[in-house]
Hints:
By secondary structure, the protein is α/β, with parallel strands linked by helices. It is built from 6 helices and 7 strands, in the order βαβαββαββαβαα.
Amino acid sequence: MRYILASKSPRRKELLATIIKDFEVKESNFDEDSLKYKNPRKLVCELAKGKARAIFEKETGERCVIGADSVVVIDNKVLGKPKDEEDAKKMLKMLRGRKHKVLTGVCVMATEDDENAVTASFVCSTTVLFRYIENEEIDEYVATKEPMDKAGSYAIQGYAGKFVQKISGSFHNIVGLPTAHLYTVLKNEDLLK
């Protein structure tokens, strides 16, 4: 079985390597802006499906494609990647001293013979509580450039770990790929070969 991660995220690549030793990485180039769902769970699920489908349809033969996408949600507002440093600061000010959710949608598309494809998708949710972060701390953090390609403008596994007061749920989900849930899906679908 060929395994393909439909994501350019180095964090997802590291996490998938804990489940599958040999896999390819291909960027899907799926137009994420084409989806306009208001429901955050539906949005991340459809984003993951779109990424997986874009690669799955280009490839042939036996393959298992894994797509994923994450967003941060606070007050029912979806926070994706920041547009610029000011946007990153604005997001972090929204999150400070408050709980928010990190949602990751994952889609697995697999086939052995191009006839009978398996599609399994799910959304994993983790609740994160940030301590109150001072403006100077936000400025210093944004100056590191770490928040610039991260949903919600932070990387929990990086410098932003010091902002986190409490987590309820999967830590790996916050990083970008809920490995325990993905492993279970791959195992249940008999896709770990």
